[in-house]
Design brief:
This protein is α+β, with helices and mostly antiparallel strands. It has 6 helices and 18 strands. Helix content is 21%, strand content 32%. This is ATP-NAD kinase.
Length: 299
């Protein structure tokens, strides 16, 4: 007998909860904010909206389904199952945070604060949750297949991201490496820079777009479902032994960007999750490209 679906509610600690954890009581948190010209009332109202949204979504889960919850900081320790329906309750960025741990499960994005969030990935309201959950497990249900980017190291470590993957130094130093196409016997260029960013069409509204605009790049930004990636080298430094001729490009399906580390330590992380990063050192190689896994975002 097949298992009943499991609704996994993904959420994050609210600003109000963080303030209470730091200051102990509502009154002390209010005093802290007041001394800095802010009011705790709006923070508390946003907290209540999030709590109500979580309660409404939990109530919409069918009685015969299993259910679970996971907080953002615990995502890297949570085991998602193939029959899960992942319900992200919060901001757009929370969908990206969860995406790297999934393998094709349908995702429903619920916006807890319409008007404050862009609503690019959390497209729905809590009142829509019941219908969306039914649709997510229905054959032929509508979903956007959002392209993801992956980094695969030569020691089999693998990292996925929905927006972008960044490789760079762990501090304010310089990353040194050799960069080139992931093609046998292709030429590579030694570089020294503040890092390399490889992004998707979903990430084209954020960090990737800022680099694209700064460079006035002639490359066309991809859309979220396009099977294309763009990559940029940040602040490449020319010297007698390092070059700047390979600083941007596009990757299609089956194409890759290969980087061999020539520093003591570099980190590779996705979608801002620095706490869950790959660490590479001298001589290690990593390949960037389109992931075979996409994010199934229920529409």
């Amino acid at each position: 007998m097949s298992l009943a679906p499991r609704a996994v509610l993904v959420h994050r600690t609210t600003e109000y909860e963080e303030l209470l954890a730091r200051h102990g009581t509502h009154g002390q948190a209010a005093f802290f904010l007041t001394s800095r010209g802010r009011s705790i009332e709006e923070v508390a109202r946003r907290h209540e909206r999030t709590r109500r949204a979580l309660a409404d979504v939990a109530a919409a889960v069918p009685l015969q389904w299993r259910r679970s919850r996971v907080e953002r900081q615990d995502l890297d320790r949570f085991l998602f199952a193939p029959e899960d329906v992942v319900v992200v309750v919060g901001q757009d960025g929370l969908v990206a945070n969860a995406a790297k741990y999934l393998s094709g499960q349908p995702v429903v994005g619920i916006d807890t604060d319409p008007g404050r969030n862009p609503g690019v990935l959390v497209r729905h309201r809590p009142a829509d949750a019941a219908a969306l959950l039914r649709a997510a497990v229905s054959p032929g249900s509508a979903a956007d297949e959002l392209t993801m980017v992956e980094a695969v190291a030569d020691d089999t470590q693998r990292l996925l991201a929905l927006n972008e993957i960044y490789l760079g130094p762990p501090g304010h130093q310089t990353a040194r490496y050799r960069l080139g196409p992931d093609v046998a016997d292709s030429p590579t260029e030694p570089q020294a820079s503040s890092g390399v960013l490889v992004g998707t069409g979903t990430g084209a509204t954020g960090w990737l777009r800022s680099l694209w605009q700064e460079r006035r790049s002639p490359l066309t930004l991809p859309g979220p479902t396009d099977t294309r990636l763009l990559w940029f080298v940040r602040e490449a430094w020319p010297s007698p032994v390092t070059g700047t001729s390979l600083v941007s490009g596009e990757l299609g399906r089956g194409q890759g960007l290969r980087l061999t580390v020539e520093s003591d330590r570099v980190v590779v992380f996705g979608d801002g999750m620095e706490s869950d990063a790959l660490e590479l050192t001298w001589g290690q190689t990593v390949r960037f490209g389109i992931s075979p896994t996409s994010l199934r975002l229920t529409v």
